[in-house]
Structures are given as C-alpha cells and as structure tokens.
C-alpha cells in the first residue's frame, strides 16, 4: 500500500515537473478572458517586472486585483478609466493604454492563468 | 483525500518526498540543458508565452536583463527578493497611497510554528512580509490575527492555499523547504511555538 502510494507520488511529481511549459518566467500571468475573442493577442502580465518597482499592495487591494488569476474582469474601458492596469498605465506613472503591443504580446491560443509551481506538486492534485 | 493520512504521510516521509523532488528537479535540469541555452532565464521569444512574431517582443525587457544584477537564488525568479530589498538593490514603492508613505505598516513579531514532526520548525517572519504586503492581503482572509488559530497545513500549502497562495505563484516556491522550516528542534534559535522575538 505504502509502496504504491510512494510510486504514485513519485510518478505524479516527475510528470508534473516535466510537463509544464517550463520556460515562462516565474509569476507571469496570462489574461485572455476576452482579448482573443475580440481579435487581440492575449495579455501577458509579468510579476517580476512590476515587483522590481512596486509592492504587492499597490495592485492587490480592494480597488485593484483580487489575488487569484482569472478572477478579475478586466477590460479596456476600465483600463482607460484608470482601473486595474490603468491605475498606472495612464501616461503618468507609466506609459498609457495606447501602447497596445506592450500588453497584448501573447501567443495566440493561450489559456488564461498563472503557471503555479505547486499546482501539480502536492497530494492535493491526486 | 483524507487530510489525516496526508498529514501523516508527510510527517513520516518528508525525507522521501524531498528525495523525489530532488530527482525531479535534476530531471528538469537535464531536460533544460538539452535546450538551446544554459541561461537561467529563458528569452521572451522562447518562453512559450510571448508571440515571437508579435511586435511586442522587441519592445519588452528580457528577464535576464531586468533580474541579472539582483542577488541570486536557485528557484522561482532566480532572485532572492528579500535580499534585493534588504541590500538596497531595489526599493519597491507603494505609489497608490502616497499619503500613507512608501512602505506598508510593519508588523515585527516573528511567529514560531511547531507541529513536532520530523521537519524543522517554521519561523514566520512578519517583517519581511510587510515590506511587500498590506495586512489586508493576509488578514483576515487567509490568516487569523491570533497565533495558532489558522490551522496551517503543508497539504494546503502545496495545494496553493495559505502560505501557498503566494509561495508557488509569485514568492519562492514550496520546494525550498528549509527557507520556511528554518529552525532545527533543539537548536539555539528554537523557541516554544508562539510569538518569538528575533532569534
């Protein structure tokens, strides 16, 4: 029984660690609920780039992003109105929403979300 | 899955689990080494996310360029983010609330957690977290403001809850066991579970 369990875990871990698109930078988030449906490339949000400059709470607060990939309904109207990415991408704190290609830089066909290092690591995934 | 079984499995088999993780990491290294570059950071054009044919690719900063000069680590972004701040290499700002100052309020006490298993005790450093996070990122949604009240479990962490919400997504991943399980039982720094002064 225990041996089987160990093997299952070993197998799952081995596969889990080999399977993901392991090259994406840690913390990169894909936002693609509506972008591609509306003819734009998916949005790639790089955590590493932003945390070099800002604390987490700038974005993760009541008025910003909930800390769960895919749980925020972001659209261009809100961004232009100064919400979500538009809190900073407003030509004041950072360049503005007219620079489409900076955000809409993803490969076509990506599904939204974050590649979690732990999503497939634990017993919870079995 | 039965939480108790899982818990016991970890208590009894953490050494084995770590061995498997080590092996898997080694296999990943091998898989990586067969790729083009032995670089720590993949170029954007080859990261399987960015469109190498899109106009953005030449405009965006490469991770190797942005992260290359920071204190190194072996996991996550390959950056020790705690040292990056404490050594003054970066000073991330809290721009949204300028009136409240650049940094979130600090919470000093460190918290010692001790399940009396085979792993080292966990020392949770409040201060390191409040350099990055607001109290409301953790309290009360993820953790109680009472020592020992949150029933923190490794199974949940590996599952992306509790500490694992950030550790595994943005902060260093849970494979780095001893960075959390940092205080050996019976060592000089060991204290009873609860609020601890700086060890």
Please tell me about this protein's structure.
The complex is a heterodimer of chains A (126) and B (199). With 126 residues, chain A is α+β, with helices and mostly antiparallel strands. Chain A has one domain (24-114): Alpha-Beta Complex (Cytochrome C3), CATH 3.90.10.10. Helix content of chain A is 25%, strand content 6%. Chain A is built from four helices and three strands, in the order H-E-E-H-H-H-E. Chain A has helices at residues 2-18, 47-51, 76-80, 100-103, and strands at 29-31, 43-45, 113-114. In chain A, strands 2-1-3 form a three-stranded antiparallel beta sheet, with no helix packed on it. Mean pLDDT of chain A is 82; it is low at 16-21 and 118-126. With 199 residues, chain B is mainly alpha-helical. Chain B has a domain at 72-183: Cytochrome C3, CATH 3.90.10. Chain B contains seven helices and three strands; from the N terminus they run αααββααααβ. A three-stranded antiparallel beta sheet of chain B has the order 2-1-3. The longest helix of chain B is centred in the N-terminal third of the chain and has 31 residues, at 3-33. Chain B starts with a helix and ends with a strand. Mean pLDDT of chain B is 81; it is low at 28-38. Chains A and B meet through helix 1, helix 2 and helix 4 of A and helix 1, helix 2 and helix 6 of B.
């Amino acid at each position: 029984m225990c041996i089987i369990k160990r093997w299952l875990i070993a197998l799952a871990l081995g596969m889990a660690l080999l399977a993901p698109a392991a090259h994406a930078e840690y913390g990169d988030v894909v936002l693609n609920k509506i972008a591609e449906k509306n003819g734009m490339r998916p949005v790639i949000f790089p955590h590493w780039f932003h945390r070099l400059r800002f604390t987490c709470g700038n974005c993760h607060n009541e008025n910003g992003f909930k800390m769960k990939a895919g749980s925020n309904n972001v659209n261009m109207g809100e961004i232009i109105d100064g919400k979500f990415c538009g809190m900073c991408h407003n030509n004041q704190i950072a360049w503005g929403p007219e620079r489409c290609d900076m955000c809409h830089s993803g490969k076509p066909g990506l599904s939204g979300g974050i590649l979690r290092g732990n999503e497939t690591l634990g017993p919870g995934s079995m | 899955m039965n939480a108790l079984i899982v818990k016991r499995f970890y208590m009894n088999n953490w050494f084995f689990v770590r061995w498997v993780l080590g092996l898997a990491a080694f296999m990943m290294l091998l898989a990586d080494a067969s790729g083009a570059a032995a670089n720590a950071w993949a170029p954007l054009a080859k990261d399987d996310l960015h469109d190498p044919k899109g106009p953005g690719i030449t405009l965006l900063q490469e991770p190797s360029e942005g992260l290359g000069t920071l204190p190194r680590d072996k996991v996550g972004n390959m950056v020790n983010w705690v040292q990056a701040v404490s050594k003054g290499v970066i000073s991330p700002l809290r721009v949204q609330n300028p009136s409240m100052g650049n940094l979130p309020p600090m919470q000093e006490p460190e918290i010692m957690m001790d399940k009396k298993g085979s792993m080292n005790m966990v020392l949770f450093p409040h201060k390191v977290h409040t350099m990055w996070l607001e109290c409301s990122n953790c309290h009360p949604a993820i953790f109680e403001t009472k020592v020992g009240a949150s029933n923190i479990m490794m199974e949940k962490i590996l599952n992306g809850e509790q500490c694992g919400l950030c550790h595994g997504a943005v902060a260093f991943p849970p494979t780095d066991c001893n960075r959390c399980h940092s205080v050996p039982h019976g060592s000089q720094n060991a204290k009873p579970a609860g609020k601890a002064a700086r060890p």
